[in-house]
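Problem 3 from the worked examples.
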Amino acid sequence: ARSVRVLYVLASGFSKHRGAFRVQPLAADKAGGLSSLSDATLAAVYPMSVVGIMMVMPFMKENTQASIHNWILFLPFVPVFAAVFFLPLMGVHEAMQDAKLEMLERYGELYTRLSNRFLAEVELERSDSATVATLHAAMEGIRLNHDQVSQMPVWPFHTSAIVRLSTVVALPLVIALGN
């Protein structure tokens, strides 16, 4: 619990400082370049699976049924897995969301300025075709970048991290329900 709190406080503290997380919209990990943070939180979840397996041991006793108090102790364990994974990443999520919105606003403002210049140039009786083509190409580049940034995820993990988390959570459940 202490390590989760420390990770959460660190991530939240960093997210409040502008530029603390260098979010890269087109990073190869498809998580803003921050997927290693989800690996760190998964590392905190993995030891919990051992505790989860130990908690299902009462379900595996010979010829005895697990009592209701065993289930009451075990069931809250699943949300704890999720909390250990997601809580530290909340601060990073906020930083990624802020970075995405900031970039989208910048692209929007730049596009509007170029669009106004483009329209003014086109409306001139003697518009320069090279200037019009340059402005149009710049607008297309900005629109393309805007579209790429708008598709950027705002959580620092991808589906494989969720699959690994689900596996760790499911393992004690499968053992408990299998008996």
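Problem 4, a separate protein:
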Amino acid sequence: MTLTFAFFTFLNAFWLMAFIAIPFPTEYEKPETIRPASEGYAAAPKTIHWKKAIIIATILAALVTLALAVIIG
């Protein structure tokens, strides 16, 4: 696998893994603290820890790229 091919494979894998990784570090409000519907959307996340999501996505993308490099290899 050439370096250019590996780079673009990693980029594609990163974005796919980002959508897989985003739900893991997402926090939702507890059911007992949900506000009335007039104050906001109850299913919306309270916070998303983006740094953790990016780290998880990067690790997964690196593993996928490495696996493809070994298979192509």
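Solution to problem 4. The radius of gyration is 18 Å. The longest helix spans residues 50-72.
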